[in-house]
Specification:
Strand content: 15-25%
CATH architecture of the largest domain: 2-Layer Sandwich
Number of helices: 9
Distance between the termini: 99 Å
Low-confidence stretches: 42-50, 95-100, 271-288
Oligomer: single chain
CATH topology of the largest domain: Alpha-Beta Plaits
Helix content: 40-55%
Number of domains: 2
Radius of gyration: 28 Å
Structural class: alpha+beta
CATH class of the largest domain: Alpha Beta
Strand order of the largest sheet: 8-5-7-6-2-3-1-4-9
């Protein structure tokens, strides 16, 4: 009798062990499936949000509306504008449209698939190579509101059907952004010029909710702030940022913070990026 009960107990234990192993494998498989599903959703979201570019335009007040119209002629673009002022003082800087005049800073979210068509429309429709016309350039985005991204990319699909395509990125330039206490932009720009910068654009801004950052950094940031935007070639970026920080950095009265953004493509700075499509077309004509 005891032997029979022992055998039954051993059999039950083996069955329980088998059930536990099956349960463990089932949970492991379910966890793997959930992980794959999460990765897939994350990838889809990243693709949705990563298919946008930010076009930054610094133009005269009268040309801001025209710029947004040209953006919307190629695709659906979500645009914002802000008042700005140029800092240039030489004829070369005036040629670039960054002189000491009132400007508009235009920020346009647009689908990457419509970038080439948009840049071409701006190049042909605004003649940014002329004196005082300004400059436009695109920077990459790592994310955006999903609703906005999906809506704008639907317009990109139409642009691609009509021959549009993503333009190659040639990151020879960077955008240097300096946030500093109001009244120090001239000092910052002078330091940048001595380090090789051409000119810049100034925006009036304000700091928001910086108490925690101030505690970590160990400084008090002023409420009223000036933003200085400088477009510079990558090889000169470090020397310019170092010069600005030395002159108006956090350890100075200017209390400046500097960061940089990569620039993909440019229209209106001596045709640096405008020659790409022209060269391609010339090659096609030569083959014919």
């Amino acid at each position: 009798m005891a032997t029979t009960e022992l055998n039954q107990a051993q059999t039950a234990a083996k069955g329980l062990k088998t059930d536990l192993k099956s349960l463990k494998n089932g949970l492991k498989e379910k966890a793997g499936n959930l992980k794959q599903a999460k990765a897939k959703r994350s990838g889809e979201k990243e693709r949705d949000n990563g298919g946008l570019k930010l076009l930054i335009g610094i133009v005269s007040s009268r040309d801001a509306e025209k710029l947004t119209e040209l953006c919307n002629s190629s695709c659906a673009a979500l645009s914002y504008e802000a008042d700005a002022k140029g800092t240039a003082s030489s004829s070369v800087l005036d040629y670039l449209g960054l002189g000491e005049t009132e400007k508009k800073l235009v920020l346009s979210l647009l689908p990457a698939g419509a970038e080439e068509a948009t840049l071409r429309a701006i190049r042909d429709g605004m003649s940014l190579h002329l004196v005082g016309k300004g400059i436009c350039f695109t920077v990459p985005l790592s994310g955006a509101s999903t609703i906005v991204a999906n809506a704008l990319q639907r317009s990109a699909a139409e642009a691609e059907k009509n021959g549009g395509k993503k333009v190659k990125t040639n990151r020879e330039y960077s955008l240097i952004v300096t946030a500093m206490q109001k009244g120090f932009t001239e000092e910052a720009m002078e330091a940048a010029r001595q380090a090789g910068a051409a000119g810049g654009t100034v925006l009036t801004a304000a700091t928001l909710g910086d108490k925690k950052a101030e505690q970590l950094i160990g400084v008090t940031l002023q409420k009223e702030t000036d933003l200085l935007l400088i477009l510079a070639k990558n090889e000169g970026k470090d020397s310019i940022t170092e010069a600005i920080l030395k002159k108006v950095g956090l350890k100075t009265d200017g209390g400046g913070v500097v960061f940089t953004l990569p620039v993909d493509n440019i229209v209106g700075i001596g045709g640096v990026r405008e020659t790409q499509n022209t060269d391609d077309e010339a090659g096609e004509n030569a083959d014919e």
